[in-house]
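Onboarding guide, step 5: your first structure request.
Type a short instruction followed by the sequence, for example:

Predict the 3D structure of this protein.
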Amino acid sequence: MTPIVPSDPLWRPSALRVQNSAMDQFRADLAAVHAGLDDSVGLHAWSVAHPEEFWSEVFDRAVLEGVRGDGPTIQHDEGRDARDAAFFPTARVNYAENVLAGGTRPGASQIALVYRNEAGVRRELTWRQLSDQVAQVAARLSAAGVGPGSRVAAWLPNCPETVITMLATNALGAVFSSTSPDFGVAGVTDRFAQIDPTVLVVADGYRYGGKTHERLGLLTQVLEHLPTVKLALVVGELTESPELPDVAGVRVESWPGGSRGGSVPALAFQAGKMTDPGFILFSSGTTGLPKCIVHSALGLLLKHWTEHVLHSDIRPGDRVFYFTTCGWMMWNWLVGALAVGATVVLFDGSPFSPGPAALWDLAVEEDVSFFGVGAKYIDSCRNAELRPIVSHDLGSLRTIASTGSPLSTDCFEYVYRDVKRDVHLASISGGTDICGCFVLGDPTRPVYSGEIQGAALGLAVDVFDETGKSLAAQPGVQGDLVCRNAFPSVPLGFLGDPDGERFEAAYFTAHPGVWTHGDFANWTSHGGLVISGRSDATLNSGGVRIGTAEIYRVVEAMPEVLESLAIGQQQGDDTRIVLFVRLAPGRVLDDELLRAMKVKVRTEASPRHVPAVIVAVSDLPRTRSGKLAELAVADVVHGREVRNVAALANPEVLAAFRGIPEISE
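The system replies with structure tokens like these:
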């Protein structure tokens, strides 16, 4: 095979593919009345320069007719930052109504959802069945008092019942939030106790890696921390009719959806404003409980339409798959593809069960056209020397998407060598913070090894140096990934942050007035971007952002541990969690204590929180105000210059973190 030349593209779309793409058709429609829209690069520049016209065009295509009110598209004072924009202030839209209308789009198949798990279970729901079950669940939630402003929490696997719960909640104008069942009691209650849910929907358990994990035994403990829950609905994932526990003060019932005789309750959709909360997602920082990020349902509908239709070229009738759990923003992203008229393929379980090629088998058997996974999965396939290009017929597959962590050049080249040659490989990056992407694929542009193709339409993405100067003219120079303008999926704020102080501190302090995302990035000579990893102390385990405080709360409850500090360490193309512990006098970090720590973190937080390496140290660095200096330790471990050493009360401690054998093994 001819060696791959780094400066040459790995893939270039044919002229016909470009012409048939939604991106180019959208551009051509606008080019008829606007100058300078010769390609998608020109389209992006126009979308940033003319946000009112751009988002108005998106609204007209993404939202059902007859819902926009009179008035301006955007209310935004020039010179103010992303927090001050008001998009479509007079519009009244229901997200669930628009999602369920996907089945009426020309070209949509009869099947809305396909569900499979690692045990071989397969189910299909037609659009009619999906709508009927949403109506049934909405009726039960309404009877329990759920309405506008109420909150419904789901502790569920990636199964149809989670989708139905989300749509039923939204149909009533209530707020939906979810997390995956591998989270233990502490992981669940750290999240849901902050949002005061009225209803909790829980599965009796889940399957992963050939094992079953029961969850009903933990329900009583969870509900002890959720005093606002009055109704718990139990989904039978392990057994068809699970035995319901008796919980004082809470009505526990079986899942109300499913095929039933008789009439289906009427489903009335509660329309909401852009400023009405629709979803709460959780993203962890380095101190305190996970942040409760409040999102507008209409904001996500518009943002996801641009990503699904324009950037991903998803069409009505396509089969869309993303390997995700319900605790990751990619689950919300995946479900949103229903609004396009696509069939969504859900999978729950290990991506390597029953065999290493399980997801490629699924792609073939379900005729998947859009296949999304984490970068770590592609790297695992490469290391396992899987060659789907010879073992699987991937004729239906047009797009492979990768996110969760940077995709290495080796993995880019692996896909085109060993998976499929004529495929759009779209490396994408964004976050729970916006429930979408800052940078992602473009079906009309070539793919270069190791590069994300470009910025999201409508977003003025850039890379800044530490002084706030743009590095766009300096390809290869690393800086902070930023966004200079407003867009619809800017969060409404954090729950429990009435003055917006935490929200501002999270995104708008590094470069005042400019959204700073916390990723290191650089531009490339092709106009693409490379994401190098987190620039803050948030951990990224398997593509899911984890706050160090979640680990500290569990570990420091052990009498052997006085204090702990966690960092994410780059290991080749992946990131692993390294935990440093300061032990109580007389304690030794032996094999027994190591095992106990890992078991405790796994059961009380989640498997993703478990450190790959635990190292005992005599002291930990801290700032003069007493805060642990996680960034300083991360800099030392990665061989970078330590930032702001002057702020440390005990900088001499950092020397102990250089060259520890356990870190580099």
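Each response can be followed by summary notes, for example: Residues 1-6 have pLDDT under 50 and may be disordered.
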